[in-house]
């Protein structure tokens, strides 16, 4: 039920963003115009929030599936999120360049860029430590709690950056009428609340004991065997 609700909220946020940019801001294009800028919020909500949230949830939704398969799915969904995010970043910088608008001066841009850089770093380290591990078993064990913490932190940062971006966009476009809550303003407010609810639900799911992955003796035995082969260890690290 929680997983389904998260999908409804996540997809709802993506749809609301598309409607906002499509109906009220003129649609989408890739020509340096304001329509190219409109790809930025859509890609960030889709990549940094919805897909990243789903990548975090795969370990809870598919908790009874083979760990290797779930790990691969986790990495692939994060890769899709990364690609979509990069498209969104390129779109906004391309629009700013074509329109001779300064970049990286607002709080939204600072928080957003910090989130994107940390997200890229998190994905690369996850690839090296877990999907195609080059680090020792001990080092992976030390890094795992930090990896999990950073995943949750990045989701919070992503949603926070989106909320800043929504507010900034509204002030740039309908500041004179926003206080009267026009339809565009109401839609954007609902989008912000939806993003917030999505984040709360995802974090709620991943912190509940009932959604945790149950111990699998066969996987643990294979893990010990792999460690023995690669490190010459005789027993798993407690």
TrEMBL record:
PROSITE patterns: CYTOCHROME_B561. It catalyses: monodehydro-L-ascorbate radical(out) + L-ascorbate(in) = monodehydro-L-ascorbate radical(in) + L-ascorbate(out); Fe(3+)(out) + L-ascorbate(in) = monodehydro-L-ascorbate radical(in) + Fe(2+)(out) + H(+). It is a multi-pass membrane protein. The keyword Glycoprotein does not apply. GO terms for cellular component: chromaffin granule membrane; lysosomal membrane. Pfam families: Cytochrom_B561. It comes from the Eukaryota. Transmembrane reductase that uses ascorbate as an electron donor in the cytoplasm and transfers electrons across membranes to reduce monodehydro-L-ascorbate radical in the lumen of secretory vesicles. It is therefore involved the regeneration and homeostasis within secretory vesicles of ascorbate which in turn provides reducing equivalents needed to support the activity of intravesicular enzymes. This is Transmembrane ascorbate-dependent reductase CYB561. It comes from Periophthalmus magnuspinnatus.
């Amino acid at each position: 039920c929680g997983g389904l609700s998260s999908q409804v909220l996540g997809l709802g946020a993506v749809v609301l963003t598309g409607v906002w940019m499509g109906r009220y801001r003129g649609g989408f294009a890739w020509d340096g115009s304001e329509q190219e800028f409109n790809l930025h919020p859509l890609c960030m909500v889709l990549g940094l929030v919805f897909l990243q949230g789903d990548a975090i949830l795969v370990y809870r939704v598919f908790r009874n599936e083979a760990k290797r398969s779930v790990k691969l799915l986790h990495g692939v969904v994060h890769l899709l999120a990364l690609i979509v995010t990069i498209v969104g970043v390129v779109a906004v910088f391309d629009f700013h360049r074509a329109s001779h608008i300064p970049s990286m001066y607002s709080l939204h841009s600072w928080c957003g860029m910090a989130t994107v850089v940390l997200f890229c770093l998190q994905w690369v380290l996850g690839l090296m430590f877990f999907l195609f591990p080059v680090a020792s078993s001990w080092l992976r064990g030390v890094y795992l709690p930090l990896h999990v913490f950073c995943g949750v932190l990045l989701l919070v940062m992503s949603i926070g950056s989106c909320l800043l971006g929504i507010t900034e966009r509204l002030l740039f476009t309908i500041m004179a009428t926003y206080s009267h809550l026009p339809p565009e303003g109401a839609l954007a407010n609902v989008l912000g609340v939806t993003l917030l609810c999505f984040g709360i639900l995802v974090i709620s799911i991943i912190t509940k004991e009932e959604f945790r992955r149950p111990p699998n003796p066969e996987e643990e035995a294979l893990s010990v065997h792999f460690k023995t082969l690669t490190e010459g260890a005789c027993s798993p690290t407690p």
